[in-house]
Amino acid sequence: MSKNEQKYSDVVEILDSYENLVISVCNQANVEAMEVHIGGDQLTRERFSGAKRLRAAALTEMERFHHLTPITFELFHLQMSVLTLFYQQLYNTTNTEPFTLHAQKIRLLRTDADGNDVKNHYNHCKELAVSFIKSYIIEAACEQFGINDYNTVPDIHLPNDDDSVSSWLLEVVQPVTEKILDACKLDSDLDHGYCDKASDYANLVLQLGVLFMELNDVVKYPDRDRLLAVLKILMVILKGHNTRSKYALEILRLLCQQFALLSESQAYSSLYGMFVNTGGKLDTNSPADLEMEHLVRLTKGHLKAMCSNKSESSVRKRSCAFYGMKKICDNFDEQTKVVHRAQKHKVLSSVEDEKAIIKDLRKVRPFQHVCGRQIASMKHCPKNPVKKINTVELHKWISQNQIKFYYEIGR
What we know:
By secondary structure, the chain is mainly alpha-helical. The protein folds into two domains: about 70 residues, no CATH class; about 230 residues, no CATH class. Helices cover about 60% and strands about 5% of the residues. The chain contains 15 helices and four strands. The protein has a two-stranded parallel ribbon. The two termini are about 25 Å apart. About 0% of the residues have low confidence. This is DUF6589 domain-containing protein. InterPro entries: DUF6589 (IPR046496).
């Protein structure tokens, strides 16, 4: 459909086509028309809800888009927003110290990872961030266990049974996590000249970085309880980073739906409907909007190949034939024994990069608190956004929006 989401008249026509499709499919299947979960990025979600509000007083269920509910945001754009926050907090082009994000980007020749434009360099920025976070996790473990080299095997005796190993692991890891979380809460030393900016920077890397990796992991292996727990923390962090954060409000809206506004069946179906599994395996899940981005890229490639022969009917015919064209091309390549030449791998080895980062961190030892240690290229050390939160204002914001979402027309 050649429609513009920035115009409500076009959005209404898009939802009309969705409603007609739902009713048509259900009629052909001889079942009663059912509610279907729809969504998109933050802007699309807002436009869809606005279009439903415009039709709220219509006479028939079809005109009110009764079967298009609930409407939610999607997770790929949330991942992008969280990664952007990570870079806004930790990436500074003036930093030259080896334990900083910008310095490691230069040292590792990750020139495509533009931290000031994460949206247009998402994959490269994500690869650098993940390597950087993993290296800091290993550095924290080395500091905790008193290991001088990451190749050294610690003299630790593990229990024999699995239950004991789990309990032992929690006992060992808990002091590290508590220390990092305490650094997020306490500011008592800042006014007395005892602060360690390198240690503060390292703690912030783990506070934000581990949360980002947990979000990536739960998107790959969907689990409702884990996802909702991560979203609660992200809502507070995004709200602290920007009091007008759109995704903080979207997360609150989703949490209200999941815990109060939707039935248990609707809550589960809508949340797991935010994922697509293209491989049929446990680890081949991806956000629905990411798959849509891939489809948009494929469509643009085919439209470019059509040159000037574009009309609404020709574009529709071409897009309907994508799957068949791919099968024909793959079969032709197989029958004619076409050899696809492998190119030189353009992405540098993340393992070797992480070893280089760990080697630099072992020299600096950022998790070893040194009173008064400063960062020459950094006048103000970044702080966790949670520290900026006014608890009273946060509770007021949540309460006001809870009432708004309860009476919302177009959810």
